C-alpha cells in the first residue's frame, strides 16, 4: 500500500511540478494577460492557476492508473512516453506566449499540444478507460485555450 501511495504522489508531482516551473518562469504573465486585447468569454486571470492545478492533478492520477494498470510494459511505456511528450509541449507554451509574445506561433504550438493530448487519451483508453476520461477536461480546456490564444493573436 505504501509503495502505491508513493507512486501515486510521484505521478501527481511530475505534472504539478512541471506546471509550477513553467508558471515560475512566466510569473509576470497575468500582468501581460491583463494588458492584452482578449476575445469574448475570456476568464479573469485568477482562474488559470486554479484550473491548471486541477488539470495537472488529474493528469497525474491518469498517468498513475496507466503506470499501475498491469498492462503490457510496451503499451505502458509507449503511452507514458507520449504523455511525457505532451507534458513537455505543455511546459513550453506559456514561455512562447507570455515571455516571447509569439501569439500565432503559440497557437500552432497549442494545436500540436491538442493533438498530443488526443493521442495520449487514445493510448490511455486502451490501457485504462478511467485514465483516458480523466484527461477529457484537459482536452476541453486546451480547446478553449486555443480559442483564447487565436483571439489574442488576431486582436493584438
What are the main properties of this structure?
mainly alpha; elongated; 7 helices; 156 residues
Can you describe what's shown?
By secondary structure, this protein is mainly alpha-helical. The chain has helices at residues 2-25, 29-35, 47-67, 73-99, 103-127, 129-134, 136-155. Helix 1 runs antiparallel to helix 3.
Distance between the termini: 52 Å
Give me the secondary-structure category: mainly alpha
User: What are the segments in which pLDDT stays under 50 over at least 5 consecutive residues?
Assistant: none
Please bin the fraction of helical residues: over 70%
Briefly say what this structure is:
This protein is an all-alpha fold and 156 residues long. The chain contains 7 helices and no strands.
List the helices and strands and how they pair.
Elements lengths: L1 H24 L3 H7 L11 H21 L5 H27 L3 H25 L1 H6 L1 H20 L1
Amino acid at each position: 500500500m505504501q509503495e502505491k501511495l508513493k507512486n501515486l504522489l510521484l505521478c501527481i508531482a511530475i505534472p504539478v511540478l512541471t506546471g509550477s516551473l513553467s508558471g515560475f518562469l512566466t510569473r509576470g504573465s497575468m500582468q501581460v494577460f491583463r494588458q492584452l486585447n482578449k476575445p469574448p468569454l475570456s476568464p479573469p486571470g485568477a482562474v488559470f492557476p486554479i484550473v491548471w492545478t486541477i488539470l495537472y492533478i488529474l493528469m497525474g492520477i491518469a498517468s498513475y492508473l496507466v503506470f499501475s494498470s498491469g498492462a503490457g510494459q510496451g503499451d505502458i511505456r509507449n503511452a507514458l512516453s507520449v504523455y511525457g511528450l505532451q507534458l513537455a509541449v505543455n511546459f513550453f507554451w506559456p514561455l512562447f506566449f507570455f515571455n516571447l509574445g509569439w501569439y500565432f506561433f503559440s497557437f500552432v504550438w497549442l494545436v500540436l499540444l491538442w493533438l498530443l493530448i488526443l493521442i495520449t487519451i487514445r493510448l490511455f483508453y486502451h490501457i485504462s478507460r478511467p485514465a483516458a476520461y480523466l484527461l477529457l477536461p484537459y482536452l476541453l480546456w486546451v480547446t478553449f485555450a486555443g480559442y483564447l490564444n487565436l483571439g489574442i493573436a488576431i486582436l493584438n
